[in-house]
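Deliverable D4.2, example record:
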Amino acid sequence: MTDWLASDVAVVTGGASGNGREISCTLAEYGADVVVADLRMEPREGGQPTTELIESEYGQRAEFVECDVTDSEDLQRTFDAAETLGGVSILVNNAGITENRDFLDETEADFDRIIDINVKAPFFASQLAAERMIDADHDGRIVNIASISGIAGRGNGVVYSASKGALRLMTYALSASLGPRGIRVNDVSPGVIETSMTRNDLEMFDSGAAEEYATTTPIGRVGTPNDVANAVLYLVSPLAGFVNGETLVVDGGATNSWGGIAGED
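Output generated by the structure prediction step:
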């Protein structure tokens, strides 16, 4: 296996389950030590905690930090944990929440919660990471996990679409701000990915919505966490050394093909 990331320390928010778990393990597979920041250590889908899996399967160092990404002290503790491993050089802002709600039923509390987690938290996590990357003179990389709902609006998730659109534009602005300081910033925008969130919280598979989505993709299926993790791996690897301020859409072609829809990551 290529040790593309052998000198890197990655922080993955929401790294205990779903896409974040797969991202954490994939980065470890390619040589990174990983700080998994999440509200709970146990993966929602079951199995070994992600940090234990990283250590046993890939032989990399891993630390778990119980972290509410909207809490500045928790974020500080997360990056302090990265310092014990050598200092953050990769940040994946993966933690996020979604919704399936009619616009007329949205409340101010709904709005604030989604924006706080999906926009405000990545902003300040990126700021803390960038400060440390610059101080340590690291070749820094930040990847935000956005969504195709931030490209094509979704009527039953207006606040969610607004938050992911904001995150995508934040990515571009950060790339302009941090690129001259040696930090590349990109985003991955998934379509429907089969995770506990889409299966259990949104009930997309029981309702048939996921199957309907699959018919809109030229590839004819929904995505997997591995699809998202491989996209992140590319963006933080040496292969993407001249890629900055870009959106990598991982949706099987649904958004840009005839009959494409705005799905849910």
